[in-house]
Each structure stands twice: as structure tokens, then as C-alpha cells.
Design brief:
Shape: globular
CATH superfamily: 2-C-methyl-D-erythritol 2,4-cyclodiphosphate synthase
Number of domains: 1
Bound molecules: magnesium ion
Structural class: alpha+beta
Strand content: 25-35%
Number of helices: 5
Length: 159
């Protein structure tokens, strides 16, 4: 028995914010804007996990009108979503993420993202894939107006 979920998120790039992606802070001239730390990769992963059990989306569980979530480290949200799955008897089998960003170069950071995300979800690093691509300067990502991320997860019952 298994189930599947997918997630997608976008945040706007702006000056004066730290860039958090895949659970780590990356040195860059721009950061993502949002109520939380605006980590699009984690938000896409959370939505994929919630979607796998038809539990709604991240906005339903952690509303951006709630001051408790202002500036929150998205890793806390990811741990909470993993807990929601486990209390229903499910765990992530594997997850595959793609981040669309023109800049900065993400390749040097991918391995650390995988380690951090796997730690939050509670699975081994080889069950978390993170990929990054530019969009060849096309679209909002290409114009560096924002960064988007997609995630797919397969979940399985806890034995
Ligand atoms: Mg978001």
C-alpha cells in the first residue's frame, strides 16, 4: 500500500531578507519574502506530504494570518507535518524536489539541503532528492523576481 502527493510553491525575491532554501541559509544579495522564512522548497515538500493524505495544504495548517508563524523557521513546519503523517500511521518513503532559480548557484548547497530535510522528515538522506534548475532566464524565476519549487512524495504505512 502506498500513496502519492505533490506540492508547488512560489515566493517573491526581495532585498533586505535572508535567503532560506531547503532548510539552510544561503549567502545572496536577495532573499525570499513571506510571513515565515519563505523557504519555498520546504513549503512545496510540506504540501506534497499533506496532499498525500488529502490533509489540505500548508496554509490550512499554518495560516499566514497567525502571528505564531511570523518569521518561523520552516523546518519546524516540516517536522510538524511529518508528525501529522506519523500519527496517522504513515511515513515518507521518498521525496523528490526541484527548485527553479536563476541565481544563486544552488549546486554547492544541494547535499546539505538533503541532509537537513531528511533529518526533519526522519528518513535517510538517500530517500530525499533535491534538484535545481535555472529557467534559461525565462519567466519570473528567470527574471529573478521569485523562486519556485515542486515536490513529489511517496508515503507508506509505518510497519
Ligand atoms: Mg510558501
Amino acid at each position: 500500500m502506498m500513496r502519492i502527493g505533490q506540492g508547488y510553491d512560489v515566493h517573491r525575491l526581495t532585498e533586505g531578507r535572508e535567503l532560506w532554501l531547503g532548510g539552510i541559509r544561503i549567502d545572496h544579495t536577495l532573499g525570499l519574502d513571506g510571513h515565515s522564512d519563505a523557504d519555498v522548497a520546504i513549503h512545496a515538500l510540506c504540501d506534497a506530504m499533506l496532499g498525500s493524505l488529502a490533509l489540505g495544504d500548508i496554509g490550512k495548517h499554518f495560516p499566514d494570518t497567525d502571528p505564531r508563524y511570523k518569521g518561523i523557521d520552516s523546518k519546524r513546519l516540516l517536522r510538524e507535518v511529518a508528525r501529522l503523517l506519523s500519527e496517522r500511521g504513515w511515513r515518507v518513503g521518498n521525496a523528490d524536489l526541484t527548485i527553479m532559480a536563476q541565481r544563486p548557484k544552488l549546486a554547492p548547497h544541494i547535499e546539505r539541503m538533503r541532509v537537513v530535510l531528511a533529518g526533519c522528515v526522519g528518513i535517510s538522506t538517500d530517500c530525499i532528492s533535491v534538484k535545481a534548475t535555472t529557467t534559461e532566464r525565462l519567466g519570473f524565476e528567470g527574471r529573478e523576481e521569485g523562486i519556485s519549487a515542486m515536490a513529489v512524495v511517496l508515503i507508506e504505512p509505518i510497519a
